[in-house]
Amino acid sequence: MVRRTYPGRCLISGLDTTKRKVENEIILSLKKDRREESEPASWLVFFTGFKEPEFWLYLLVDKYATLKDIDQKLRDVWLECCGHLSSFYIVGKEYESDPPEDSYYSEGLDMADVVVGDFFSENLTGKYVYDNGSPTTLEFKVICELPYRTKEDRKTEIVARNKKPEIFCSKCGRSATYIFRLYEDPDDIFYCDECHAKHKCGDDAWLLVANSPRSGVCGYMGGLADDEC
Length: 229
What we know:
Low-confidence stretches: none
Strand order of the largest sheet: 2-1-10-4-3-9-8-5-6-7
Number of helices: 3
CATH topology of the largest domain: Structural Genomics Hypothetical 15.5 Kd Protein In mrcA-pckA Intergenic Region, Chain A
Strand content: 25-35%
CATH architecture of the largest domain: Roll
Shape: globular
Number of strands: 13
Order of helices and strands: EEHEEHEEEEEEEEHE
CATH class of the largest domain: Alpha Beta
Number of domains: 2
Largest sheet: 10 strands, mixed
Mean pLDDT: 94
Radius of gyration: 19 Å
Distance between the termini: 35 Å
């Protein structure tokens, strides 16, 4: 059986790559682009959509960053629409974006209290959920520790991500740019610019096709472009 590949881009080198090859490209690009520190400075972490392998990204995370910093980057690039709550689930524990003060209502821990340098280890895996009402679920794996700092000493930096999957208009087959949110049939919700312009429904009925596992959910309209990561 031929394994499917998912195209993407290394944002350090700007070169096209694939999900299977990208880790080597990231490390080679860091060696060329960054000064090597005398001790580990960051962690490389892989995220992908749950049952949506076409959506993936790699984060370079400063060792002093927190889970809250990672949460913010994921929101910025893939998820944020209405300020929903989110959680990491790691080794049987929940780490919440905004845990209630009264532990009676939740046993979750505060993700802002978890510094990755004290917590991460190679091959650590877990799950992340944004919005319990209309959830978008991600899986992640900590790849390795690296002696390279993030760009401009940011807490987090997206160093590679998938290319936007091709989605076609349900009416004419051209490239789709809109999602009609009032239809439930997934084969009849995508519209190109021209077919969208002919439709009689107003703006509230539409979402933008986004490069995100949250595309088409709630009020999501898109996140950071490659040059903003």
